[in-house]
Amino acid sequence: MINSSADTPCCDWDFNLTAVISYSSPSSDAIGVLEFDPTNSLLATGGIARKIRIYTAANLPILKEGCDYCIYTPAKLSSLKWRPSSGSRLLGSGDYDGVVMEYDLERRLPVFERDEHGGRRVWSIDYSAADPALGASTSDDGTMQMWDTRCDAGTSVATVRPDRSAASPVCCVEFDPIGGPTVVLGCADRRIYGYDARRAVEPIFVLEGHEKAVSYARFMDSETIVSSSIDGSLMTWHVEDRQLIRRYRGHVNSRRFVGLSVWRGGGGGLLSCGSENNRVFVYDRRWGDPIWACGFEAAPQQNQGFVSSVCWRQTAGECCTLVAGGSDGVLKVFEGRPRPRG
């Protein structure tokens, strides 16, 4: 393990606020999830308002309020994921009622519905980059369900129960976005589990080090995973040797989901998360302390808001775009530019 306290952060970036998008009913509009589509042309948001809002990414810097259109959902949303290779057409969701749905955005209608989790809240969904019809969802019921959109609802490809002794909730799932066979889970039992999606029977690795529930696990690349926990830390891990690389601290996270996103474009290496002190944080993978943070103003109806979701736009250029959503329903868009060298 690299001792993060000995690292001296060096910020090679300047971040500037480019847009603030708000709505008229912040008390019931907390944003729980943000997702750019595979073409980076659309942004989808979801949360407790029972709406999927769709934005044209190119228009974000000029918006003050409103979106391109809304799709109304039957329950509060905890997760959104665009199906790979569908462009901007197919968007999956997981909700508080334990249901996974997929929407066709051309028709703005649901095209399938699954309920493999017995009505227990779905925390996360994802699709395989190697086989875009293969998806997975995780839930309060202590399982990851893998399913095939070409098969009837109720027919799972595999049921995985990482914590077999206590059936701890499984909080997150992500397939290797590069197309490798690994799928990674974060669990309330404080562990991160990796499985081979081709035969998801026993974990191929288990990572231990967090002190509380793991809320998110993301691939930085095929060899590196970053995880987030309500112990107030992020961690990066080397997959092959199962070793902790670095621990990141600075944000506040003791009981809520506050988002985690990795920027893989333009050389990558940037992490972002929200915080319970109503700020958005950016870390460079090389240093354990944040390189940048920005506060949100709490809405008048709230004593203390929090930043509840973050998402990088996965562009390949030198500049980057980060979108953060708050518990008051406000979206903020930031642009990052590398500082001149020399």
For this structure, what is the CATH class?
A: Mainly Beta
Rg of Cα set: 19 Å
* Structural class label: mainly beta
Give the proportion of residues in helices. under 10%
Put simply, the count of helices is 0
- What is the H-and-E element order? EEEEEEEEEEEEEEEEEEEEEEEEEEEE
Q: Biggest sheet: strands, sense, closure?
A: 4 strands, antiparallel
Poorly predicted runs: none
| Share of residues in strands | over 45%
What is the CATH architecture assignment?
7 Propeller
The mean pLDDT is 91
**Shape category:** globular
Total beta strands: 28
How many structural domains? 1
Strand order of the largest sheet: 1-28-27-26
Fold-level CATH name? Methylamine Dehydrogenase, Chain H
Full CATH superfamily name: YVTN repeat-like/Quinoprotein amine dehydrogenase
Cα separation of the termini? 32 Å
Describe this protein with a few key phrases:
Methylamine Dehydrogenase, Chain H; 342 residues; E3 ubiquitin-protein ligase RFWD2; 0% helix; cytoplasm; globular; single chain; four-stranded antiparallel β-sheet; mainly beta
